[in-house]
Sequence to fold (138 residues):
Amino acid sequence: MKMYFLSSIVLLLALISSPANAQVQDEQQNYVVLTKKIPQLQPIFLTAETLAEEDGNNFGKFEVIICGQTVKELTDKEMMQKYINKAKEQDVELVACGFSLNKFGVDRKDISPEFRVVENGILYNLQLQKKGYTSISL
Fold:
């Protein structure tokens, strides 16, 4: 009986410290935020900064998708530069919704090259969620 108990303890410890379990603990935490308002970028960057501190080495990617009528504001390069600088500082990727750009007549050449354009921001957000990204829409 004593041997059975000791064997069970050894097996339990082996399972707890297995490489598969360690891999789950070291998994990167990725985030995506879909927003329709440029002023929300400031609190989004603060959130990215806090999550990076909390997650430490497990902090992965942080992407912000800008959709809706607010994409018109992306053409104001002077106003957008402060957000672009902050995004670079926080290692946040800025993404523009191509569908919104088309719908509201914004030429892709008129927005800063720091923005990556995806064809459909909502679809892209859902695809990232399928990959395990934590997502919120504002």
Observations:
- The chain has a mean pLDDT of 85.
- The domain at 27-137 is CATH 3.40.1260.10 (Hypothetical Protein Ychn; Chain: A,).
